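User: Can you fold this complex?
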Amino acid sequence: MEKKAEHNIKAYGSNFTTMTPGPFALKLRTCKIWQLIRFIIINIKMLIVVRKSH
Amino acid sequence: MARLVVLGGGVSGHTAATFAAKWLGSSHEVVVVTPNSKWNWIPSNIWVGVGGMSKEDVTFDLAPVYAKAGITYKQAKAVSINPEGSELSQKPFVSIEYTLAGREGESENVEYDYLINATGPKLNFGATPGLGDAKGLGEFTVSVCTADHAAHANEEFQKTIQKMKNGERQKFLIGTGHGLCTCQGAAFEYIFNIEHELNKAGVRDMADLKWISNESFLGDFGVGGLHMKSMGFAVSSKIFAESLFTERNVDWIIGAHVNKVEKGVVHYELLDGSMGEEEFDFSMLIPPFAGVGLKAYAKDGSDITSTVFAPNGFMKVDANYAAGAYENWKASDWPKTYQNPTYGNMFACGIAFAPPHPISKPMSSPNGTPIGPTPPRTGMPSGIIGKAVAHSICDRILKGEDAPLHEISMAHMGAACVASAGKGIFDGTAAAMTIYPVVPDFEKYPGTGRDVDYTFGEIGLAGHWIKHILHHLFIWKAKLKTGWTMIPE
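Assistant: Here's the predicted assembly.
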């Protein structure tokens, strides 16, 4: 069985209160079509931040 | 003819010098004094440190670029400043000592009309016993602060991969090497590149990865953390960072002041006052930063270093250094013009200016040891400040000494940060983040201190592609190739 991200949580350890991505969230991170859309959006957001900073 | 002398040829100094040379033209002189013969795109040192790039991929020779720009280039280190001149010289000058091969140790006084101090930091390895000494990096840990350091880090990293392939388990300890370090982001990026490369090499299950940092919580990043818009929530960077560390199975120690490094073991003190030690087979610890140790002398030769520089060696500018306790801190404490308050023709930019105080809430252990990040002034803010300072000086040279100075505060400035994990186009991901403003303004943005519409972060291939593009774009810009002025800092 493939190890899921939540399997790294140690019961009542330092990382017990965090959240971990599920399979869908992980898939989206490497889905080329979705990431192309995100690439455009992130670039636009970054350009706005750059413009506001000059 | 006026002469502008720029001390330092890093992101801030190079930006300031190249724009000043363009705006001033050949009627005035721009001089760059830097001990280095090469320019280094430091963010990509991370990839050098895991073998994804070579040293040559992230550096280039400065001499031909400055020749093309009409900039006088002196490969030398600045030793002292005489802002009032001396008994022998009416004009202010900088004393320099050449590092250029064939002229090593040769001294010269370089007169100036305007001075920009953009020396960057001294990598203060000597502040932690065992991390290094006055000469630099020690023998027990590695660093990615310079291209040479990163190439050495990769050599050591490859040895650990070989050991794991031979069945020997390895422990990696990455983070900050002192309680008052900055640049947690670089270490953050490095640990996830290591994790990625270990996966690629098929030895991840043979490795234990641990993060050690002076941050009081994961995701502080030296800016007191941030809240970013994600899935309709304003999510704390603590959640963001803890989630990533857990997903990649990286353990952490936070609130740690590393007080001694020995072969294979790090000793540290925590914010609760307890002491601990952590063993390692491979460790990359970022050193604390300090000013480069420039001295300043008055006309009569008396030492005025404490007038010009803060105790940490960074140059005083138009910041409010009397803000006092954390409760009194305001966004308006941060400098806007970067002009030295005593000598109006001296400016400091990038890491070289003395910040008024940290951005993160200062903390110390019950033993009185201060443990907390010092404020980052690298990357995008560094370039933007360099350009603004160059603009101010050019205006004063071309329009007269009463020309208004350009203002750009880190409390009104954003920053984009892309932390990659991997180097391949499709097999890596990155955490892409923007933060606006860098210094939180709790009066303007109650609660989080920042505009959550422009403070965001996400992980994926998209950020990774941006990291690749930024690498080539900024080296293109720094080489002053066609259209370089169109590329923002």
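The domain at 3-123+289-399 of chain B is CATH 3.50.50.100 (FAD/NAD(P)-binding domain). The interface with chain A takes residues 239, 242-243, 245-249, 251-252, 380, 384, 387, 408, 412-416, 426, 429, 432, 434, 436, 454, 456, 458-463, 465-466, 488-489 of chain B (CB under 8 Å).
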